[in-house]
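Hi team,

As requested, here is the filled-out complex form for the FE3-S4 cluster run. I kept the field names the same as last time so the parser does not choke. Let me know if anything looks off before we queue the next batch.

— J.
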Amino acid sequence: MKPTVDKETCIGCGVCASVCPDVFEIGSDGLAGVIGGSDCGGCGCCEEASENCPVGAIKL
Ligand code: F3S
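And here is what came back:
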């Protein structure tokens, strides 16, 4: 499963990068992105990031 971030929706709150730092990072544009086309590792943190994103920008 490959998570994606909708940059039109992301407000750069940073929750995803703090709960799932192996997959999400805040880029130089101040918005989240997926690190190097990462796959979800299966630990559940992508789901947690998606559920906790305040604007629902993360799709799994
Ligand atoms: Fe953006 Fe949501 Fe992450 S607002 S920084 S995708 S938690």
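Two things worth flagging: The chain has one domain: 4-59. The first helix runs from residue 15 to 19.

Thanks,
J.
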